[in-house]
Amino acid sequence: xxxxxxxxxxxxxxxxxxxxxxxxxxxxxxxxxxxxxxxxxxxxxxxxxxxxxxxxxxxxxxxxxxxxxxxxxxxxxxxxxxxxxxxxxxxxxxxxxxxxxxxxxxxxxxxxxxxxxxxxxxxxxxxxxxxxxxxxxxxxxxxxxxxxxxxxxxxxxxxxxxxxxxxxxxxxxxxxxxxxxxxxxxxxxxxxxxxxxxxxxxxxxxxxxxxxxxxxxxx
Length: 219
Fold this sequence. Notes:
By secondary structure, the chain is an alpha+beta fold. The protein contains three helices and twelve strands, in the order αββαβββαβββββββ. It folds into two domains: about 1-35; about 40-219, Immunoglobulin-like.
């Protein structure tokens, strides 16, 4: 009788261990393994053609400094846009793209750090600026980001902005050759650093602005 009780006790302990082990496996599966396999997988792309490169687009008076210029020049812009596609098994939640830094020759231009680049699908100035910077990308969906813009009212490189008042970060670059490093982040994936070669010639030709994707690294 005592032997049977001992055997039953051992069996109960074994089953308790098995149940605890299964519970741990389920927790690991739920919290770590499944999220690892079912996560966003983002692909970044740029090509020198439509829809990545939009040339001679009418932009209204948004970038003009004075009313006198409106009567002389039809304001046009060339937009260079990066495509972001989610090839993963989960939506990419609350994505945002910011300038990490800009490098000119050996000089790092940190003044631009944190500048939020605009989603091409959200151009309206009436957007809620608190939420406009972030956008979720569904499974198999894609979005475009305005990386750089040239306008025919000056020679500079422009970065599209959300804010209507100054935020203490420069919005333009002088013509020249640069390395542009971006930080793409979100709620449910590790951030990506995306690097471009950026160049604009020192003239009013808005189609002589170029970018080239040279690197993507997930942190």
